[in-house]
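User: Please fill in residues for this 391-position structure.
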């Protein structure tokens, strides 16, 4: 089964701009220009004046319409005092990003709650109130290349538009599965377990980089990017890879949380040093957030072409043997992790499992928890049952 899902707001993602272009000249300048006297010769006025219209009407109608000069003047004065008809100026569909963001924030749009239950996984997602939904997820399960134990799960968080997150959520899973199957076919039969694990990790890295290259080649005008956290189950092993601040947390041995990723942010010393060695710089904004070139808060991502020299798409990959005690995996966007700790997330899922309640309800609970604590970002939470893969 291949499932690619992009979570969107219930309301339209492109809000109407609140303003429109009325005239190229500023209003004070236009008033001043109209107030200036202009001399036109009387002969020129006579030449330009249109001929008086000829009106043919029955005599009785003409008599009823006859009126004195004073009555006509009164009507002219009253007409001048009336409120003019409201002028409605349509706004172009490609209104600027600032105007569109203003309209989206000002509109009383309903947030889109999405809850999905699949084969061994659950997802809950809600759009933030600030902009159109930029989170997505993808799942590939079932028999892939004859391997029923091969499965892919991913959560993605876009920034600067939907282009990158839409592309990556559709392509990355396919690229990872294809690369891993190809690596397995090319592995020597007598290769050691360590060599096989290294080949899988290298295939995942290559798939990430290939997806980034495809994105940059096919969407050269796109300025945004996307973060990701993915999990691949193969041969009794769990391979977790990530870019940016999406995170994967493992629950093991009765509900102990173990982070399998470390956020790629400019606050991390290793990331800051890597950027500076490459000729870039990291600065701290007024809100206290460290940013690459004073712009982007994450130090690794898909896309972000203008910062690609420093914001790389090479993921960190870790492997966990799936043995007794491995319970489930929580994968989520930073909209959750900014407000909820790793252990709190694991505790919420563990409670639902102990109480024989659907794990999907715990995903929704975590979304509500992040929102109640002030998160205004998109929040997407995925839980993957790992016990079904333990041999």
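Assistant: Residues filled in for all 391 positions:
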């Amino acid at each position: 089964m291949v499932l690619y899902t992009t979570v969107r707001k219930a309301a339209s993602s492109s809000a109407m701009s609140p303003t429109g272009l009325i005239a190229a000249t500023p209003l004070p300048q236009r008033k001043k220009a109209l107030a200036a006297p202009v001399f036109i010769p009387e002969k020129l006025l006579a030449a330009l004046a249109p001929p008086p219209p000829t009106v043919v009407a029955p005599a009785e109608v003409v008599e009823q319409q006859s009126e004195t000069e004073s009555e006509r003047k009164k009507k002219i004065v009253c007409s001048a005092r009336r409120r003019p008809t409201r002028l409605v100026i349509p706004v172009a569909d490609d209104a600027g990003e600032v105007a569109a963001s203003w309209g989206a924030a000002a509109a009383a749009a309903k947030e889109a709650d999405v809850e999905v239950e699949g084969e061994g996984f659950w997802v809950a997602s809600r759009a933030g109130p600030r902009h159109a939904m930029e989170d997505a997820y993808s799942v590939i399960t079932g028999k892939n290349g004859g391997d029923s134990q091969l499965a892919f799960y991913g959560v993605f968080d876009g920034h600067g538009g939907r282009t990158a997150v839409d592309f990556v959520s559709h392509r990355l899973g396919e690229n990872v599965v294809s690369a891993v199957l190809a690596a397995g076919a090319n592995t020597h039969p007598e290769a050691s377990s360590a060599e096989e694990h290294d080949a899988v990790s290298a295939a995942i890295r290559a798939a990430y980089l290939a997806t980034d290259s495809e994105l940059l080649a096919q969407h050269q005008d796109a300025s945004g990017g996307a973060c990701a956290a993915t999990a691949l189950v193969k041969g009794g092993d769990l391979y977790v890879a990530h870019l940016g601040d999406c995170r994967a947390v493992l629950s093991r041995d009765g509900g102990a949380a173990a982070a399998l990723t470390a956020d790629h942010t400019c606050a991390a010393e290793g990331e800051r040093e890597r950027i500076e060695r490459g000729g870039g710089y990291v600065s701290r904004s007024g809100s206290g957030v460290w940013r690459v070139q004073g712009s982007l808060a994450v130090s690794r991502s898909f896309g972000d072409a203008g910062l690609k020299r420093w914001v790389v798409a090479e993921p960190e990959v870790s492997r966990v043997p799936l043995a007794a005690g491995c319970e489930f995996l929580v994968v989520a966007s930073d909209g959750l992790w900014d407000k909820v700790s790793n252990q709190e997330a694991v505790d919420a899922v563990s409670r639902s499992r102990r109480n024989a309640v659907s794990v999907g309800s715990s995903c929704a609970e975590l979304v509500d928890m992040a929102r109640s604590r002030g998160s205004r970002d998109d929040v997407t939470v995925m839980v993957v049952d790992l016990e079904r893969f333990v041999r």
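For context: The chain has a mean pLDDT of 78.
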